[in-house]
Design goal:
Layout lengths: L11 E4 L6 E4 L4 H12 L9 E3 L8 H10 L2 E2 L3 H13 L12 H11 L8 E2 L7 E2 L1 H5 L7 H8 L3 E12 L8 E6 L8 E3 L2 E4 L5 E3 H4 E2 L2 E3 L6 E2 L6 E2 L5 E3 L5 E2 L3 E6 L5 E2 L5 E10 L1 H8 L18 H17 L5 E9 L1 H7 L2 H18 L5 E6 L2 E7 L3 H17 L1 H5 L3 E8 L10 H10 L5 E2 L1
Parallel strand pairs: 2-3, 3-4
Antiparallel strand pairs: 1-2, 5-6, 7-20, 8-18, 9-16, 10-11, 10-15, 12-13, 13-14, 16-17, 18-19, 21-23, 21-24, 22-23, 24-25
The protein binds zinc ion (3 copies).
């Protein structure tokens, strides 16, 4: 193998003559190679560059191997092979080297632009909280759970090309390590057993089949009647389970989820659903990257009714124009603000705080009515525009939000509370119809409608 060394004792070898075209990590065993690849990908300047390695002598374990495949552009045997592969990538973008790299989104989009057709798929890793993670995102400075991918998809920069898994996550810690346990629907205890029972028609006694057994047949332990004919002398009730704790008999056990990470107990219908997929850059995204213009969003309407703040303001302005002209049209603007966020932020790790906020921003759109739209202007400020809403609808939404806060142990533990203010177009003279001004007005209003 022939590799020129980059400085003495370095395992990093440089590709390219006139300029840096890529890097090769040479002669490292998997654990160290993994670290080196992560460090290299995390480099803010060259992290997106082609990166190869010589194959470790010992086959790494499955997860390490998957992460290495994710971080590296491949294994090579010679510097020539690496150089050829790197040049092929650069020629795909006509040797343009000034790709945007200032932010995690920019690095990811530039990375994908340089590798046309590359499908970014997650690594399944049982050691991670959400079971699936994208180490590349982590290297680029974003959260490894793939949140950025959904945002970039909403902006039209990425396209999801395949669904890999639909996760059910713990509503408290967003972990995917959940246990589904059968429990007694009466006392919620776990000590239940399958048990067929018998119902004696003579005296009406119901008990476990065991209590009825007699050599060669069945006898009621209560009235001593011999039971021979099912349907005329006895039958078998549908309740096939028995609780050892409270003696309840039931047909179907209740399913409870236990979080393997934070021990939170929940019901399956309260779990958060999140989809994990494979993504590629869109042609539009590539053009934006190559034009070094990736900041403004194209598509602002997210699938779930959550809007880019600017678009939200425009829609709000439009609604208030309509309301000013047509008295039969009205709307409610709701401002939901999280309180104690600073104190909370100092108690929680940044990761936990951002998880909580993400959970809220994911749940809010699912609480609003169809046709309502929402946005988030700052980390603690959420807004909902509710066309034709009456106070009952506003109250219902606030109550749902309150229920969400009460149901989450983590929100309670974090002592996170919210306040809500509403502006009803019918009760306000709309001299000002600019969306931004209305939002300002509501934010400055001191009176709060409800408090969780
Ligand atoms: Zn029970
Ligand atoms: Zn009987
Ligand atoms: Zn949990």
């Amino acid at each position: 193998m022939q590799f020129s060394k980059w400085g003495d004792g370095s395992n990093l070898c440089v590709l390219g003559e006139d300029r840096l075209e890529g890097l090769v990590i040479t002669h490292l065993e998997s654990a160290v190679l993994l670290e080196a690849a992560m460090t290299q990908r995390s480099d803010p300047r060259y992290g997106i560059y082609p990166l190869y390695a010589t194959r470790p002598r010992q086959q790494p374990d499955e997860i390490t191997s998957a992460v290495l495949d994710h971080l590296l552009d491949g294994y090579v045997e010679t510097a020539e092979a690496a150089g050829t592969a790197a040049r092929t990538l650069w020629s795909g973008i006509a040797q343009q080297t000034d790709l945007p790299i200032d932010t995690p989104d920019a690095r990811l989009l530039s990375y994908l632009t340089l590798r046309r057709g590359y499908q970014l798929a997650p690594v399944r890793d049982w050691r991670s909280r959400e079971l699936y993670r994208y180490p590349l995102l982590e290297a680029f400075g974003a959260s490894a759970d793939g949140e950025l991918l959904g945002l970039l998809q909403q902006r039209g920069m990425l396209r999801r090309t395949g669904l890999i898994e639909r996760l059910r996550l713990c509503p408290a810690c967003q972990g995917a390590h959940l246990l589904f346990v059968d429990a007694c629907p009466n006392c919620h205890g776990l000590e239940i057993e399958a048990d067929e029972s018998i119902h004696c028609f003579t005296c009406g006694h119901v008990a476990s089949q065991r209590a009825f057994s007699l050599a060669g047949g069945l006898q009621c332990p209560n009235c001593r009647a011999r039971l021979r004919h099912i349907g005329t002398e006895y039958d078998r009730p549908l309740e096939h389970h028995h609780c050892k704790r409270c003696a309840e008999r039931f047909t179907e056990a209740e399913v409870i989820t236990h979080c393997g990470i934070c021990e939170h107990e929940s019901r399956p219908e309260l779990l958060i659903t999140r989809e994990v997929g494979r993504y590629e850059i869109t042609e539009y995204g590539r053009i934006r990257v190559l034009n070094q213009d990736i900041s403004t969003p194209l598509v602002s309407v997210e699938r779930n009714g959550s809007l880019h703040p600017q678009v939200f303001e425009q829609l709000l302005g439009w609604q208030s124009e309509i309301a000013a002209q047509h008295p039969e049209c009205h709307f409610t603007l709701l401002h939901i603000q999280l309180e104690h966020l600073e104190e909370t932020g100092s108690r929680l790790t940044p990761e936990a705080a951002s998880r909580l906020l993400r959970m809220l921003s994911e749940r809010l759109p699912s609480l609003v009515r169809p046709g309502d739209v929402c946005t988030r202007t700052q980390s603690a400020d959420f807004w909902v525009l509710m066309p034709q809403a009456d106070p009952t609808a506003t109250k219902a939404l606030i109550e749902q939000l309150q229920a969400l806060f009460e149901a989450s142990d983590e929100l309670r533990a974090a002592n996170l509370r919210f306040s809500a203010r509403a502006l009803e177009s019918g009760h306000t003279s709309l001299t000002e119809t600019s969306g931004n001004a209305l939002m300002q007005k509501l934010a400055e209003q001191s009176e709060e409608v409800l408090h969780a």
